[in-house]
Amino acid sequence: MIITTLVENLSVSNEYKNKHGLSFHIKTKNHNILFDLGPDKSFLENAKKLNIDISDVDIAIISHGHSDHGGGLEGFLKNNNKAKVYINKNAFGLYYTSILKYGKYYIGLNRELKDDKRIILTDDNFKIDEDILLFSNVDRKKFLSTSNKSLLKKEGDLYLEDDFRHEQNLILKERDKHILISGCSHCGVVNILDKASKILNENIDISIGGLHLCKPSTKKIEKEEFIRALGENLKERDTKFYTCHCTGEKPFSILKEILGEKIDYLKTGSILEI
Asked: Cβ distance 8 to 244 under 8 Å?
């Protein structure tokens, strides 16, 4: 399995365009998968430089209904004519962020695309094939980011705190490995890992994704004691972590201090072979 980071907040070099967002290309034994599409067409430009043909992608997955993960959907549909796009049934809702200086700002997906014939709406556990499983509806019990409180969903005239029913996660199986891939882990990486292990009745070998320890609009990070407690929890697991995007550079440095070789960071242009 080869996982190439097409879009992330940082870049391995100036050759690639980095943006606040996320997109992975995943080459498995049987599939070419895109997990998230970034905020715009940047993933297309970077894919070309990395010798990845987007027209060959046969499965696309959007982790949740925020534009930094699904803003490139229109560009993908125009540049690929065969892949189905798997999106949680709640992901085309009205999602906003609350920014003190600017008020409420729409951060959802382009709702004009929701009826495209290639979009498959998912819910809870959704098996694409024997090696690819999506799951959502994660109980949010432990280690939740405080920056989630500024993320809202609109229902009627009301703006409510988002419950992230629209967030889904990916489990891939290849050879003897179980790989978990998440977008922002809004439901909490510990809770997501626990549900994934429960579904499989096996350990997650590799976990990849953002941990939402940094608020994008203000760059404010979670309290250090929170990050350290999270790090100690992850350290006890027999799992290798690769993080990115909304984790933040400072939180990552704290986690790296605790987890050492058990955690690394993926930037735009990173190529990970599993």
From this structure: yes
Please give the domain boundaries of the chain with CATH numbers for all domains: 2-273 (3.60.15.10)
At residue 99, the pLDDT reads 80
Distance CA 140, CA 150 (A): 16
- Which residues, 6+ apart, have CB-to-CB distance to 48 below 8 Å? none
The pLDDT, as a whole number, for residue 216 is: 77
Average pLDDT by stretches of 10, the chain with 274 residues: 98 97 97 98 98 98 98 98 98 92 90 97 95 96 92 96 97 95 98 97 97 86 97 98 97 98 98 96
Q: What is the 3-state secondary structure (H, E, C) of the chain?
A: CEEEEEECCCECCCCCCCCCCCEEEEECCCCEEEECCCCCCHHHHHHHHCCCCHHHCCEEEECCCCHHHHCCHHHHHHHCCCCEEEEECCCCCEEEEEECCCEEEECCCCHHHCCCCCEEEECCCEEEECCEEEECCCCCCCCCCHHHHHEEEEECCEEEECCCCCCCEEEEEECCEEEEECCCCCCCHHHHHHHHHHHHCCCCCEEECCCCCECCCCCCECCHHHHHHHHHHHHCCCCEEEECHHHCHHHHHHHHHHHHHHEEECCECCEEEC
Q: pTM of the prediction?
A: 0.97
- Asked if 260 contacts 266 with a C-beta cutoff of 8 angstroms, the reply is no
Structure tokens at 59: 């499965």
Two tokens, residue 155: 């229902």
Please tell me the distance from the alpha carbon of residue 52 to that of residue 46, in angstroms, as a whole number: 9
